[in-house]
Fold this protein.
Amino acid sequence: MNLMVAVDEQWGIGKDGDLLRRIPTDMKRFRAMTMGNVLILGRKTLESFPNKKPLPNREHIVLTQNLAYHGEGVTLCHDIDDLTQLLKKFDGKEVFVAGGGSVYQQLLPLCQNAYITKIHDIYPADTFFPNLDELPDWEIVDEGEVLEDEGVKFSFVLYQRKK
Ligand SMILES: NC(=O)c1ccc[n+]([C@@H]2O[C@H](COP(=O)([O-])OP(=O)(O)OC[C@H]3O[C@@H](n4cnc5c(N)ncnc54)[C@H](OP(=O)(O)O)[C@@H]3O)[C@@H](O)[C@H]2O)c1
């Protein structure tokens, strides 16, 4: 299982239900990497998408405890222990954990690859990702050059769970 997240220098990922910054280059990469694949996300992150709708051409597994929740075009999951079973339905596709904070936290132990967009700045945030530099199981295996888009500096960094 993989995960993709954009973090600031303090591993902040969101504020008031929204992203810290929208970086078009990062969005394009997210789209390209997840296209045709499976996203796992929390109900709050789904509701932060445009019109609260799933993204085109990707399977969405949405976690919610609300048994009455209706999400159009998504597969609902009410218990994280059911995920492995649910994922069998999408065998052969890559799986990406796509947030938010609570879902990253719970599924990090199941992930091998963490595609981190590191934003070289600090923003006010109320939602955070675990600091992978402080977790002994994780190491950086690829670190891209510093890029800039709309005045925001960032780099794509791949962390992997140590073998
Ligand atoms: N920087 C990034 O790359 C990035 C990516 C994605 C999201 N974000 C940000 O992250 C923030 C949202 O994160 P969040 O932690 O507040 O919300 P979230 O993880 O998106 O959603 C939380 C909701 O998911 C459901 N859920 C979580 N664990 C569950 C479980 N084990 N079983 C059943 N349902 C479960 C619950 O829904 P119910 O309440 O319906 O039961 C819970 O309230 C936003 O600011 C968003 O913009 C950032």
